[in-house]
Each structure stands twice: as structure tokens, then as C-alpha cells.
Write a structure and sequence with these properties.
Elements: H1 2-9, H2 28-41, H3 53-63, H4 67-81, E1 85-87, H5 92-104, H6 107-112, E2 117-120, H7 126-137, E3 140-145, E4 156-163
Parallel strand pairs: 1-2
Antiparallel strand pairs: 2-4, 3-4
Amino acid sequence: MADASASHDGEDAQEPELKHFRLFDLPPELWIKIGKMAIDDSPAIKNYEIHCRRTIKSLAALAYTCRALRKELLPYYCETKISPVFSIFEEAGRIGRLGHWARRLDPSTRAMVTEAQVYTYRKDSLEELESLLSGIWLLKIKLVPLVRAGAFSGFRPFKVKFED
């Protein structure tokens, strides 16, 4: 009995051969699902992080692996993980971060950022607010008014659409 257990634990026992796993050997539906799961597990980009280089690199890490992943995962990442909300009353440096960050994205990626929002209590017209933000951000934008139930009187939230 002792010999049987010794040969099992000893040097003579063969270790299983390790095989390399290649993501792209799987059907596209599976590697896209894996990619979306990885994105779901990643942290969202907060307002205070919008200026960091890391946010650009995190976009690139998985989505820029190949064209097929970029096509499927980059829109998903932008829609689910990038949702900055800024007040137009914030100091120019803070509100300017969104424009600085957005200018670093290529136009097609920037257009995928669909959850950026600004809010204000200012009484400016929509065109005046668009002009103000376009001037700060150095980007052409459109503001889409949002309806918020129970919002304070005069509170005006807008979704930001980047145009190029």
C-alpha cells in the first residue's frame, strides 16, 4: 500500500500537460460575452477621474485588442461606464476637464459617450448654454433637455451629445 501512494506522489507521476488558452479560438459570441463581463466588473469613470490618463488606457485595454472587439465592446463600455455629470456652476477647471478628456478621444469614440450630463440653474437659452460649453470644451456639442420628476424649481439637466 505504501508503494502505491509513494508512486502517486513521487517523481514518476506525470503532470498534466498545460495547454494555452486562446480567446479567439472561441466563437465570437462567447468572447464578446467574456469582454462584456470584464467591462461589467471594471469600475465606472467618475467625474473626478475624467481627466486621468487611466481612463483613456482603460478604454484601450480590452476594446483595442482587435477590430471585432472594438466594434462590439467600445460602445458598450462608453454607454455603461462613462457617465460624468457636471454643474455649469463648477469652476472652469473642473468643468473644463470633460472637454479636455473628450478632445483626447477620437471623434468616433467620443460620439459613443452617451451618458455625459450637465445641469444648471442658469436661465440662458439652450443655444447660449451650448455656445458656452462648446467654447469651454473646444468641441461642438448639442444639449438635450432631460425631464427629472421632483427636481428643484429652476433645475435644468441636459444630456451632452458630442458632435464632429
